[in-house]
Design a protein that fits this description.
Elements lengths: L3 H8 L44 H97 L4
């Protein structure tokens, strides 16, 4: 591959001769000599220009085909998105139903907890009252036992 200066020299684009390169003395052009002019190479055809241009009717038909294909892709994308949205909505609806059921279960469990707490408090109150009644009955029984002993005892 030629150096940039050589490429410019070859294309005839230098306005003056390049400085002599180190180690290449004697190769510089003669004083006042203009660089050689060579015809520019034709540019390679672009990829879009490889085939000959179509007639207007063919171009419009090709454009219409491309637009129909793009519209079909857009419809397919829209259908996929609608299906995904419907599936997501179904999941959201199911989740909402599950949340409502869970909230109802929590509410019912809360009611059962309150009932259990009230039942426990009532049972504790009855137990306390039962212990007091048992203590009173013990006291009366002990008093009665002393009276019986007094009445039936040797001194009696």
């Amino acid at each position: 591959m030629p150096t940039p200066t050589a490429a410019l020299w070859e294309a005839g684009r230098l306005v003056k001769a390049p400085d002599a390169a180190l180690g290449f003395a004697g190769l510089e052009p003669a004083p006042g000599a203009a660089p050689p002019r060579r015809p520019a190479r034709p540019a390679a055809p672009a990829k879009d220009q490889v085939r000959p241009p179509a007639s207007d009717a063919e171009g419009r038909a090709e454009q219409a085909r491309r637009e129909r294909a793009e519209a079909a892709r857009a419809r397919a994308d829209a259908e996929r998105l609608e299906a995904a949205q419907a599936a997501a909505q179904e999941l959201a609806d199911q989740a909402a139903t599950d949340v409502a059921a869970a909230e109802e279960a929590v509410r019912a469990a809360g009611e059962r907890l309150e009932t259990a707490r009230a039942t426990r408090a009532e049972a504790e109150a009855r137990l306390k009252e039962g212990r007091r009644a048992a203590a009173r009955a013990r006291t009366r029984a002990e008093a009665a036992a002393r009276k019986v002993e007094k009445l039936t005892g040797p001194e009696g």
